[in-house]
Amino acid sequence: MKWFNNFLTTLVPFMPRMLVGLIARKYIAGKTLDEATIEIKKLNEEGFLTTADILGENIGDTKAAQKPVQSYLTLLQKIKDAGLLSGISIKLSQLGLTHDVEKAWENFHQILMKAKELHLFIRIDMEDSPWTDQTIGFYRRARDEYENVGTVIQAYLYRSEKDIKEMIFDGPTNLRICKGIYREPEDISIKDKEAVRQNYFNLVKLCLDNDTFVAIATHDIELINTCEAYLKNNDIAKEKYEFQALLGVPVKKTMQKLLAEGHRVRYYVPFGQDWYPYSMRRLKENPSIAGYIFKDFFKFFRP
Ligand SMILES: Cc1cc2nc3c(=O)[nH]c(=O)nc-3n(C[C@H](O)[C@H](O)[C@H](O)COP(=O)(O)OP(=O)(O)OC[C@H]3O[C@@H](n4cnc5c(N)ncnc54)[C@H](O)[C@@H]3O)c2cc1C
């Protein structure tokens, strides 16, 4: 079956956009803020927290970033007004990072100030490796003037342990640990799946052992179990960590079980017009997903 899934994965880039949209629907909470609000409310009612992400990345220039900035300001106000249990996740390339670093900072700062006023949390997503230094730099700069901010560290990068140690050394740190979704060169990234998993656990431990808040963002059941056992055996306080999952990945039962056991669980809820690159990454991220696509494809066309 593995070879078949691998084969299907190679076909994903050639799928018609409409078909990608249909299959990727379950990963996205709609195109509008109203649709996302409904999804977030539903998750909140089930006991989950959320982090809302307005889809979009690599905008044309920093001027084009004004639109996502306004959308994020509106989103923050909506979260407050509707009493949603949600923070936001944001990609710096959506704010113009790849064009003009200082302009991107000004854009980010507007959002940061609004979140500060409303006491809401901002998580800076981690993008591909050319932007790791800048992303960590933005995070460090942001946490100097605002507490409710965190960023993401990718377990597949060799540099991650050092990055975490440096951040922790400098002050209170709040990190989401994920495996990493981008295709990175061999000299900077771990390719062996088991080694990534091992590094992931080491990074989570590094945070927990240093009193650093960690969001354990993975759908890997074995890894979730290993982390959960560590939390229990070391009597880690509930407010020091949370589990996170992406909307649409079929791990709801595991997340419900974690909730029932008293852990905090947060769903990443992406929405917006700019759904295509995110959906393609979700669909391509590992060969077993191609199997899901194949099944979904037939489910969709079944009468
Ligand atoms: C909340 C959250 C935030 C994230 N933020 C970032 C970020 O800022 N930067 C970044 O680089 N990456 C981010 N990621 C993505 C992450 O790096 C991984 O690419 C992704 O989570 C898959 O890795 P995994 O840990 O779930 O392990 P995997 O070994 O890839 O997956 C574990 C199991 O989950 C299932 N699964 C995983 N993904 C899917 C899917 N899309 N559809 C169906 N089944 C699936 C597979 O069946 C597999 O068996 C984030 C992930 C989460 C959960």
Structure report:
This protein has a single domain, classed as TIM Barrel, CATH 3.20.20.220. The chain has helices at 2-11, 17-24, 33-45, 66-81, 101-118, 132-145, 160-170, 193-209, 221-233, 252-260, 276-284, 287-301, and strands at 49-54, 86-90, 122-124, 149-154, 174-178, 213-217, 241-246, 265-271. The protein contains twelve helices and eight strands. It is of the alpha/beta class and 303 residues long. Strands 1-2-3-4-5-6-7-8 form an eight-stranded parallel barrel, surrounded by six helices. The two termini are 26 Å apart. It is globular and about 50 Å long. The structure holds flavin-adenine dinucleotide. Residues 125-126, 152, 154, 178-182, 217-220, 244-246, 249-250, 268, 282, 285-286, 288-289, 292 line the site of flavin-adenine dinucleotide (FAD).
Q: In summary, what is this structure?
A:
This protein has helices spanning 2-11, 17-24, 33-45, 66-81, 101-118, 132-145, 160-170, 193-209, 221-233, 252-260, 276-284, 287-301; strands at residues 49-54, 86-90, 122-124, 149-154, 174-178, 213-217, 241-246, 265-271.
The coarse silhouette is globular
Query: What name does CATH use for the topology?
Result: TIM Barrel
Order of helices and strands: HHHEHEHEHEHEHEHEHEHH
Indicate the low-confidence ranges by residue numbers.
297-303
